Amino acid sequence: MKLYLTDLDGTLLDHKAQIGRMTEALMNRLIDDDIKISYATARSVHSAEPKVSCINFRLPVITHNGAFIIDPVTKERIVTHFFSEESKSFIKSFFYEHKESVLVYSVIDNYERVSYLKNRLNKGTERYLKDRAGDRRMHRAKSYDELFEGDIYYITLIEPVMKPDELDRYFYKTNGFSRNYQPDTYDTDEYWYEIYREDVSKANAALKLKELVGADEL
Fold this sequence. Notes:
Low-confidence stretches: none
Pfam family, one: Hydrolase_3
Helix content: 25-40%
Strand order of the largest sheet: 8-7-6-9-11-10
Largest sheet: 6 strands, mixed
CATH architecture of the largest domain: 2-Layer Sandwich
Number of strands: 11
Number of helices: 8
GO molecular function: magnesium ion binding; phosphatase activity
Keywords: Hydrolase
Strand content: 25-35%
Number of domains: 2
Distance between the termini: 9 Å
Radius of gyration: 18 Å
CATH topology of the largest domain: Hypothetical Protein, Haloacid Dehalogenase-like Hydrolase, Chain: A, domain 2
InterPro entries: HAD-like_sf, HAD-SF_hydro_IIB, HAD_sf
CATH class of the largest domain: Alpha Beta
GO cellular component, one term: cytosol
C-alpha cells in the first residue's frame, strides 16, 4: 500500500490559499477510491481545517512542521513532541533577555493555546492575531511566567529583531532545537522564524505516519 502526502501552502492551496474545484473533485475521488492521502503542513489543524474542509481527509495529518500527528476528525493528538523542561527553561530565559515578540504554542488541560504578551507585540504578531480574531486558542498572557505555562511545543517569531544567523547560534541544530525560517507564503515582505524540537520535521513525521497506517511506500 502506498501513502501519498501533500503540503498545503504553495502546493495544494493556490496563491489565494484556496483549493480549486478541479483539485477538490480529484482529491475526493481518489480518497473515495481508497487511495491513502494525507497532508503535512506548518499550520495547526485549526488553521488548516477551514482551508481543506472541502476534502474528506480521513487519515491522520501532520501539523506544525511535524510536531503533531492528529486525527482530522476527532482532533486527537496521536503523536506529540513537547519541549523538555530544560528546553522550556532555556527558551524562557533567552527571550526574557532578548525581548522579541514571541508566540508560544502550548497544550493546557488538553486544549491548545497560543500565548502572547501585549506589550511585546510587533506589526507581524499584531497582524497574526488580527487574522485569527475569534480563535479561542489566542491567549493574552498577564505575565511573562504565564506566557510559558503548559506543555510547549512551538515558538514563532514574526519579523524578529535579531538576525536569523544570530538566532541560529542558539536554535538551529543545537541545544536540542531546530527551526524553520522563511517568508510568509502570502506576504513575502514578512519573515517567520519557528522553533521546535530538533527531532521534529515533516520528513520524520511522514515516516511515522507511514508506520501508523501500515503503508509499504511513501
